[in-house]
Amino acid sequence: MITTTEALADVVRRAREAGAVGVDTEFIWDRTYYPTLGLIQIGFPDGHCELIDAPAIEDWSPLAELMSDPDTVKILHDAQQDLNILHRTCGGLPKNVFDTQRSSGFVGLSSTISLSELLKTLLKVRLAKTETRSDWVARPLTDAQIKYAEDDVRYSVDLMLNIMGKAETLGRKEWILDEMKIYEDESNYSERDPDYEMPRVRGSGSLTQQQRNVLRALGAWRELKARRRNLPRGFVLSDDALVSLVKRPPNSAEEIRQMKGLSERSAERNRQYIWEAIERGRSGELPDLPNNKHIGPSPDDGYEARVDLSLASIKGMCLADQIDPALIGNRAEVTAFVLEIDNLDASRHRMLRGWRGEFCGKALQRLLQGEGSISIDSKTKLPQLS
């Protein structure tokens, strides 16, 4: 196992010489806000694997060089979470990433397929997924842990080659390469301002507008404190306590007392901060949520029918061409597309950019503007746009 920066640099040198390597991480995520990295796996084209002992490494600069090397393909499965962890560890902005999960959606498979299912489908390899709940920080690792970790990257290069071979046959190779550029977007690796997000809180349905604002303000305070102290959100303020404060708000800081999900000690320590957040939510000073308003006229009585028509058209085209419809966009994106049809801006609508625009976005635009048509293909029995 790799335990020194010097040995890590040698692995990185060999990885760059190979031109393409599998990359994966193993971590624990129990009593912290951020995952605690235990292991990084590098899989070479010949099936050889190297395991990097994350707690032992002091200087991660060699890994940053690998992740930001535009000439070396880094192959991951369900890449974004691993890339976020690696970026937080080493700081290198990822370049030339290949996601075996996402790319599967271009070759007749699900874009959310599991690694074990993908390996079984494409390479006839069966993995024993026995260590999913292992402690990856404890040492020494067991033989079972080591095999599990190596298997996650041992076949990465073969998987990529198999997927890209199918994509080339289908004429989708350039589409996949275009899609992989999303992992080079620097905004994916910066922490979002919680003021611009509605927190996901269990039991927070059926709130008034002012209660929603108080929820946002309390959620933003909780998020920032959880990050700063590297604690789970619930350790700072539980969902139960947050909902109680929103639905039965105190009239002063002094009324904030121990309750379910808020210990007496925590109430004493955070009373003033909680009160300030409640008052901030009541004041209406929070910024508008992104995508809260669409550009264009107010929704009319028929817009939902046009959304349903658009979704059916997209699904029909995707089924006919063996593309996972989830890659095109979700219902919220399609709804915004429909509502803004007379003032579409490609910077706001990814369905007009890159391969999506070529595949269906521009045809859907013509249909919604009354310039295109939809019919049922007599052979496939699926909707098609023209």
From TrEMBL:
It comes from Thalassobacterium maritimum. Residues 208-288 form the HRDC domain. SMART domains: 35EXOc, HRDC. InterPro entries: 3'-5'_exonuclease_dom (IPR002562), HRDC-like_sf (IPR010997), HRDC_dom (IPR002121), HRDC_dom_sf (IPR044876), RNase_D-like (IPR051086), RNaseH-like_sf (IPR012337), RNaseH_sf (IPR036397). Pfam families: DNA_pol_A_exo1, HRDC. PROSITE patterns: HRDC. This is HRDC domain-containing protein.
